[in-house]
Structure formats: structure tokens, C-alpha cells
Design a protein that fits this description.
single chain, about 130 residues, alpha+beta, four-stranded antiparallel β-sheet, 4 helices, globular, NTF2-like_dom_sf, YchJ-like_M, YchJ-like
Length: about 130
């Protein structure tokens, strides 16, 4: 399999069996980590609507469409998941810590975030995160 077929999320799987099915059916992201990986891949693939749709409804992400579109224009290079776990206190809450590398104006940058996800109506959603 050529590298170009690898999913952008960093698994060694082909995009067509990794994040693409989730991009077509958000409910297939059965863990916070799968949702986070699919959101990263959506940035790489410039799938703005998917990113908006996977924000928790209380985030009103549609209001931030322009900024989300801008973030998809960055040259996303690599994703590294540091940790992923479900909350000990709340059944429908999970967390993912990650580092995402991107290039902007010829400079490499790294986004480090501890993201929080909530499950509602059988689907995981990104709600917020702490950026380091």
C-alpha cells in the first residue's frame, strides 16, 4: 500500500477503512479517540462541514465556520495521540491528549491539546480542550 493511501490520522490503515467511513457516518466514531482522529483527518481533507457537525451542539460551531475553514487550509503534517480515556466520574465524557504538527509560512508548529468529548444521542462530540 502506498503512503498516499494511508489515513492522515496516523494509523497505518488505508483512509477508506479508517476515517473515511466515519466522515460519512459520524456515529461510527465509537470512542473519543476515533472522533478526534477523524476530526484531524477532516482538517487534512478540508472537510469543514464534518468538523462543524462533530462539535457539541452547545458550541454553535456554525458561527465559527470561517475560522474552521481557515484551520483546514494549514498544512497538517502529523498526529500523535498521547493518551485517551473515559471519565471516571461521568459516563458520557472522554478525553484525548494529542500533538498535531502543521506547517505555516514555511515554519513547523505543534498544537498540543487535552480535548474533552461528550456523548449525546449515541454520538461522541468535541466540546472543548486545554491547549498547552
Amino acid at each position: 500500500m502506498s503512503k498516499s493511501n494511508h489515513c492522515p490520522c496516523g494509523t497505518k490503515k488505508n483512509y477508506s477503512v479508517c476515517c473515511e467511513p466515519i466522515h460519512n457516518n459520524h456515529a461510527l466514531a465509537i470512542t473519543p479517540e476515533l472522533l478526534m482522529r477523524s476530526r484531524y483527518s477532516a482538517h487534512v481533507k478540508k472537510l469543514t462541514q464534518y468538523i462543524i457537525d462533530t462539535y457539541h451542539p452547545t458550541c454553535n460551531a456554525e458561527e465559527f465556520r470561517e475560522g474552521i475553514e481557515d484551520s483546514t487550509q494549514l498544512d497538517w503534517r502529523k498526529l500523535k495521540v498521547i493518551s485517551a480515556h473515559l471519565s471516571d466520574q461521568i459516563d458520557n465524557e472522554g478525553f484525548v491528549s494529542f500533538k498535531a504538527t502543521y506547517s505555516e509560512d514555511g515554519q513547523l508548529h505543534q498544537l498540543k491539546e487535552h480535548s474533552r468529548f461528550l456523548k449525546e444521542g449515541g454520538k461522541w462530540y468535541y466540546i472543548d480542550g486545554d491547549v498547552e
